[in-house]
Design goal:
Strand content: 5-15%
Distance between the termini: 28 Å
CATH class of the largest domain: Alpha Beta
CATH superfamily of the largest domain: Type I PLP-dependent aspartate aminotransferase-like (Major domain)
Number of domains: 2
Helix content: 25-40%
Order of helices and strands: EHHEHEHEHEHEEEHHEEHEEHEH
Radius of gyration: 21 Å
Structural class: alpha/beta
Largest sheet: 7 strands, mixed
Number of strands: 13
């Protein structure tokens, strides 16, 4: 049995429709959208438009032109941050964030943006009241990840958003671990900027991502180039979304992303949530029977997403992950997961954790196989010590 439990990094396998959409875009369409008047370019433009419409349906976005396609969530976060913030602005974020958010904020901090990092509790959950205490008159943005990629903690987004808008600030949400897994309504949740990767829960290919920008947000392009529109001007156009997607699009990737989102819409996001959530809970129950296991994150299963991090006392997480891979063909991830402050928060620096994350196609049998393999690998490692 081959078991893939690293969907928090990249979802695999993709639905068959995703593979077929990528092949169709490469073999049958071939052209780029907005780069010609022939039927192939027009078909490419149609695929792009329908992909935006699929994103809009998933996140309850009224105007699909407010969706900018990027190469990943990192690109989306960089555009959201560098495209809105200026020296003198104050930003609040948390200690549970991924480096894709923290590093651009750190860079902006060197250029005069004041960044406050609010510590989460030991379970990885952020107290909105703590965030409220750090709000100032010059607070321009609160930037928070919806679900921790380290321990699966689901943050109280609606409460944080309410604090943000009471302060007259922008709310940026990193949906890297929640897009395609939890129902997200940008309007009811007061989300001004939503960044998401295509290759995780949205079931699209790598090299895809998106940024939603609310109508009242002024966004500055962070790179310039050809857009297929306003070609007589040397100034980068500011129209949405063209002015923010300079250069040739990744049409095969976006076609695959469209197919992945349509799969989610057809199956039902609540169905996917219940399936993956039940598998994580099953893994937590089974691993909890093993002596020396410590599971990180919220004790309440309802506050944890489809990510489970744990360690076994006396066993190096990286060594355990290698044994699972080589001995049982089980793919998991060990280490810091590009979120060192999160590990400091939950007390797992410097070694990190072993993280398992099931996906839409994972099964209860695979979770049982994984849990049994952990027991065998731990025994083997300890015998060799």
């Amino acid at each position: 049995m081959s078991v893939y439990l690293d969907n928090a990094a990249t979802s695999f396998p993709k639905p068959e429709e995703v593979y077929q959409a990528v092949i169709h875009a490469m073999r049958e369409v071939g052209a780029s959208p907005g780069r010609g008047g022939h039927h192939r370019s027009l078909e490419a433009g149609r695929i792009m438009f329908m992909a935006r419409e699929a994103v809009a349906r998933l996140f309850s976005i009224a105007d699909s032109s407010r969706i900018i396609f990027t190469h990943n969530a990192t690109g989306a976060l960089n555009l959201a941050l560098h495209g809105t913030l200026k020296p003198g602005d104050h930003v609040i974020t948390t200690s549970m964030e991924h480096n894709s958010l923290l590093r651009p904020l750190h860079a902006l901090g060197r250029d005069g943006v004041d960044v406050t990092i609010v510590d989460a509790g030991p379970e990885g959950l952020v107290d909105p009241d703590q965030i409220a205490r750090f709000v100032r008159k010059d607070t321009r943005m609160i930037a928070v990840g919806h679900i921790s990629n380290v321990c699966g903690a689901i943050q109280p987004i609606d409460r944080i958003s309410a604090i943000c808008h009471k302060a007259g600030a922008m709310f940026l949400m990193d949906a890297a671990q929640s897009a395609g897994y939890i129902n997200i309504d940008v309007v009811s949740s007061g989300i001004d900027l939503l960044a998401a990767p295509g290759h995780k829960g949205l079931l699209g290919p790598p090299g895809t991502g998106l940024l939603y920008v609310a109508p009242h947000i002024e966004l500055k392009p962070i790179f310039e180039g050809g857009t297929g529109t306003s070609s007589t001007s040397l100034e980068q156009p500011l129209m949405m979304p063209d002015g923010y997607e300079a250069g040739t699009h990744n049409l095969p990737g976006i076609a695959g992303l469209k197919a992945g989102i349509e799969f989610i819409l057809d199956r039902g996001i609540d169905t996917i949530f219940q399936h993956e959530h039940s598998l994580v809970n099953q893994a937590a129950r089974l691993l909890g029977l093993l002596p020396g296991v410590k599971i990180y994150g919220p004790g309440d299963p309802e506050s944890r997403g489809a990510v489970l991090s744990f360690n076994v006392e006396g066993v190096d997480a990286s060594l355990l992950a290698a044994e699972l891979d080589h001995g049982f063909d089980i793919a998991v991830r060990a280490g810091l997961h590009c979120a060192p402050l999160a590990h400091r928060t939950i007390g797992t620096l410097p070694g990190g954790t072993l993280r398992m994350s099931p996906g839409w196609s994972s099964t209860s049998e695979e979770i049982a196989f994984f849990s049994d393999a952990v027991v065998q690998c731990v025994g083997k490692i300890k015998e060799s010590m």
